Amino acid sequence: MTTTAPKGLEGIIAAETEMSFIDGTQGILEYVGIAIDDLARNSTFEETVFLLWNRRLPTQSELDAFTQDIRSRYQLPAGLEERITTLPKTAEPMHMLRTMVSSLAMFDSDPNQNDPDSARDKALNVLACAPAIVAAFDRHRRGLPVVAPDSSLSIAENFLNMLNGEKPTATMAKALDVCLILHADHGLNNSTFSARVVISTMSDVYSALTAAIGSLRGPLHGGANEGVMRMLNEIPTVADADAFITGKLERKEKVMGFGHRVYKAYDPRATYLKTLAKQLAEDTGNQDLYEKSFAIEKVMEDAVAAKGIYPNVDFYSATTYHCIGLQLDLFTPLFAISRLGGWSGHVIEQLSDNRLYRPKADYIGPHDAPYIPIAERG
Ligand code: SDX
Prior knowledge:
Blueprint: E1 20-23, E2 28-31, E3 34-35, H1 36-42, H2 45-54, H3 60-71, H4 80-84, H5 93-103, H6 116-141, H7 155-164, H8 170-182, H9 190-199, H10 205-216, H11 224-234, H12 241-250, H13 268-284, H14 287-304, H15 313-324, H16 331-352
Antiparallel strand pairs: 1-2, 2-3
Bound molecules: s-citryldethia Coenzyme A (SDX).
């Protein structure tokens, strides 16, 4: 039975999942039935990953054991840090992350095992090591000594400590932890679909997660948060926002951080990030970033809200990440660090009830074409 799907598979259900539910009309996001706002207010990234992978919240002892297991894997495999410090300092962090996550397979004695326990084990390796990979490369490119991971710290605290060489304030660590929760999973987005497509061939977890990272860097997907920051830097003052955005819309240019294939209402993650960005901007003297963002949102609301185009997760995460002190080209790697939680859950879910993804293409080329010898070609 052949059915032609709309371009971009818009509206097509291509998998079942028990992890995240999105109502694009109401602007609802739930992880295993729990509203994203409740998780952002009350949970931690580690607890959220446990929830996504196990479909339930952990007991205290389960959370302690899970957290300990992740922290015991923070240290990069021997030799990987050295490889990172030989990379070109001008490499784009997302190209570096994709390459180094892929190389983790070569430090795994049994990289291709896909039984549930093995898949979970490999996913934990990547989840635990990705922050150290990003931080080690950033220290290398800045000519600073690499900071070893600290297994007494959470994923968020440890990342900031390795990046900055000092422990973060509780406020910054909490803000980053909330961002990791908000970005952890989101249905069958392009990068998650990429991971499921790759693992559906019974390839390996490292290959599936590498494919997802490659997808996420795209500016129409996870790369948008960097695009938002570049846009905010390009707008001279708050007063210039209106003309700047109006000009982009007139030129039919996409405004980064707005619009969504599923949400035709306000992205609930953006709601939370807007509040966080406002607070952090005030705390760190970056009010102009928040005020520019707010002005952009008003212009877009008047111009395109009627078309269902609202801020998405990337719009206010840009200001939030900047206020936390992240460099612009580390925004998308941070998105990847968080989404490794969701991607891994989907890889394990796909393996639990797998069928090879193999759609068809509608051939629109010629038929019965002759083979013309090269000497007779024009
Ligand atoms: C993420 O899928 C996920 O869940 C992704 C994500 C996740 O958590 O994994 O939520 C994370 O990727 C968020 C999206 C980040 N991307 C951006 O912010 C880039 C800017 N956004 C657009 O490129 C766009 O909105 C998409 C790609 C996100 C969705 O595009 P669609 O569904 O393919 O819609 P479209 O491009 O066909 O646009 C429909 C109309 C067009 O106008 P018309 O030609 O009908 O007149 O809406 C317009 C578009 O021009 N439009 C925009 C716009 N987004 C859509 N116009 C201006 N600015 C925008 N951002």
